[in-house]
Amino acid sequence: DEIPTVVGIFSAFGLVFSVSLFAWICCQRKSSKSNKTPPYKFVHVLKGVDIYPENLNSKKKFGADDKNEAKNKSGMPKNSLHLDLEKRDLNGNFPKTTTKMQSSPDLENSSPKHFAERKKDSVSPDSLKSITSLSSEDKQDKLGTLFFSLEYNFEKKAFVVNIKEARGLPAMDEQSMTSDPYIKMTILPEKKHKVKTRVLRKTLDPAFDETFTFYGIPYSQIQDLTLHFMILSFDRFSRDDVIGEVLIPLAGIELSEGRLLMDREIIKRNVRKSSGRGELLVSLCYQSTTNTLTVVVLKARHLPKSDVSGLSDPYVKVNLYHAKKRISKKKTHVKKCTPNAVFNELFVFDIPCEGLDDISIEFLVLDSDRGSRNEVIGRLTLGSSAEGTGGEHWKEICEYPRRQIAKWHMLCDG
């Protein structure tokens, strides 16, 4: 009788000890989580190139150096802007202040300065002054400022870009009067390296502080490159809104002396000004015996630029319609970085009816873009109801079956 009693006592003590230990561990985890800021660690791998943001938890002040901090604060006017990244919340946003800014003659006469001072982790506060007495029209034209740094690591032979923050972005959501901004960055002209930051919710002053390292870029080629930053606002239910862009040619920028801190005004996205869409050379042949249509996409020339690099990555989609219903589709390969592409690709379509009366064919010339939706450069339609050269070409292949007939056609707006 004594043995079961002893076993029961030990079991009770063991149960109490286990519950106490579990409760203590939960409390320790909860307290440790409350003191930690969520780390944002990403790994990007594009075409064998490792691209990753690093040192995201080691936030440092984006203002003056620690030695000169007290001096700059005492000599700084009350209404000047001073950014302290330590005061951000968990989402990386700055707390809103209710103090009103009053304009002064010094601020009215000042203008935003592009700072390129070679410091390790500091920026002069003078470059962060903004004009507070702007008219409503000027404020609408302002799309904000992008702050970033450039560096070249000679030991690792890597080009390093740190996207620090953006200030004064416009509100893309009319209901909440905020934006959900993020940034896409592309290295031109080859467009091989494409990265993007995380999305920061409901803020007009996003602090990203993300570092991207691009390996395999020789220092001698840096002068030939151009950085393209696209600032967008995330939209869950439709296509993301484009806020603006920043273009940084690296020609003349010296990175051998260390990190270079820069800021640039965000401008409107470059809209293609050329009214011409270019030309497309196609060849068609109608085989009446087999009731097939052979289409050869030969060349394209004088295509307009689809982005700031001045070059397109064109390809052609071919759609076959019967009574205004698409029954077949084909597409060519993508030709990289050229406004004058040579395709030489042949497609054979089976015609579901005798003759070509209810048949039409559509050519869409598009610009391939991995980071976003492919844009339509130009369009061409051939058929009995088509106007201009499209109708003439269609009439010839109907009158002369089994003959391959090629023609140049002007592309119209997509």
UniProtKB/TrEMBL annotation:
Residues 94-112 have a biased composition (Polar residues). It comes from the Eukaryota. Keywords: Calcium, Cytoplasmic vesicle, Membrane, Metal-binding, Phosphoprotein, Repeat, Transmembrane, Transmembrane helix. Residues 62-131 are annotated as: Disordered. It is a single-pass membrane protein. CDD domains: C2A_Synaptotagmin-4-11, C2B_Synaptotagmin-4. InterPro entries: C2_dom, C2_domain_sf, Synaptotagmin. Residues 142-263, 276-409 form the C2 domain. It is found in: Cytoplasmic vesicle membrane; Endomembrane system. Its main location: membrane. The chain crosses the membrane at residues 6-27. GO terms for cellular component: axon; cytoplasmic vesicle membrane; exocytic vesicle; plasma membrane; presynapse. One of its GO terms (biological process) is calcium ion-regulated exocytosis of neurotransmitter. Residues 62-72, 81-90, 114-123 have a biased composition (Basic and acidic residues). The keyword Electron transport does not apply. One of its GO terms (molecular function) is SNARE binding. The keyword Membrane applies. Belongs to the synaptotagmin family. This is SYT4 protein. It comes from Serilophus lunatus (silver-breasted broadbill). The lineage of its organism: Eukaryota, Metazoa, Chordata, Craniata, Vertebrata. The gene is Syt4.
